[in-house]
Amino acid sequence: MPHNPETRYRAAVVGTGGIAVAHARAIRAHGDRIELAAVVDIDGGRAADFAETWKARQVYPDVSALLAGGDVDLVHLCTPPAWHAPLALQCLEAGVHVLVEKPPTLSLAELDRLIAVSERTGAHLATVFQHRFGAGAVRLRAMGAAGELGAPMLATCETQWYRDDDYYNVAWRGKWDTEGGGPTMGHGIHQFDLLLSILGPWERVTAVAARRARRVETEDVSMALVTFASGATAAIVNSVLSPRQESALRIDYANATIELRHLYGYTDDDWTVTPAPGHDDVAQHWSRDRSFVESGHAQQLAAVLDALDAGVPPPVTAADTRATMELIAALYASAFTGLPVHSGEIGPGHPFAARMNGTGAPWEAVLAR
Predict the structure, then answer these.
(1) In this predicted model, what pLDDT tens digit does every residue of 134-190 receive, in sequence order?
(2) CA–CA dist 365, 368 (Å, integer)
(3) Are 218 and 106 in contact (CB under 8 A)?
(4) Residue 256 and residue 134: Cα distance in Å, rounded?
(5) Domains, the chain, ranges and CATH?
(6) FRET partner for 30 with CA separation of 20 to 30 A, picked from 123, 168, 219, 253?
(7) What distance, in Å, lies between the first and last C-alpha atoms of the chain?
(8) CA 341/CA 236 separation, integer angstroms
(9) Backbone angles phi, psi at 210, to 5 degrees
């Protein structure tokens, strides 16, 4: 959608850790549409350095001061996860749109509260799930919707990464109260969110989770079997114990197998298409409009700006985010209770709505003895 040249949005980056650089680069990539107007960090020196590097006009010590200044249209929340919900709440109450890093909240209950405030104030909440916006994912969804691939049959979705004990020396990592979960919540979420964006509504989850090696409260590996409304089935693996790191997605359709193998971002070179006999046209159609741009924050920010121009909720919308977060809650609920969990089962008052560890992880009971 063409943007209005009269509109140039004012962005603020809140939190100047490593991921904030990706946001600043995305803002700079769309400099004709949006500017980095402000930087917020409790560490004033770090905020000033970030603002100087990325040419931000203002530095604020906290979100309250930012909002009082009235110099912002879109807040990029790049803080540790425990701060996402309270800071997003402040922004939404002030009528300011929010683009929040994953995980957007620590629980479904927190997310539902933000959704209610967003609906009341008209300020939008969007979550950073940038893998949805790479050229390959956009093409795959379009071909699927057009019926070119046939029915989806089965899928595998794997996030097998490696994080050592030193990684978890950061105070907020590996704790239910501050990170919300382990690789299911903070690592694999990108890959299986991409899966959900392709396969649509999920219906049932059966899962396991374990703490095998890392000295943390949360899991360090999880696995799930998921059934979808379309009838497709998927196996999902999330790990921080895998020395050979890879993010992988494979979907077997009636007419072709589509595969993606990468780590933190992908281009068209990372996709493979294997047509079923008699369907060579799938590979030919896939090769149309080839892209060499890596999936990333810039592609999602472009879609967010298009939506704001049009006056519609920016992607990834609160409803889309909730489907992904509900899958996470269901995975933990199934893993910790030993029972399958259905979509819609985790409602208000459910223990796994309030906390992702719900009634408690099995290893917590062992530690308490």
Answers:
(1) 999 999 999 999 999 999 999 999 999 999 999 999 999 999 999 999 999 999 999
(2) 5
(3) no
(4) 20
(5) 9-128 (3.40.50.720), 131-297+324-362 (3.30.360.10)
(6) 123
(7) 60
(8) 15
(9) -150, 155
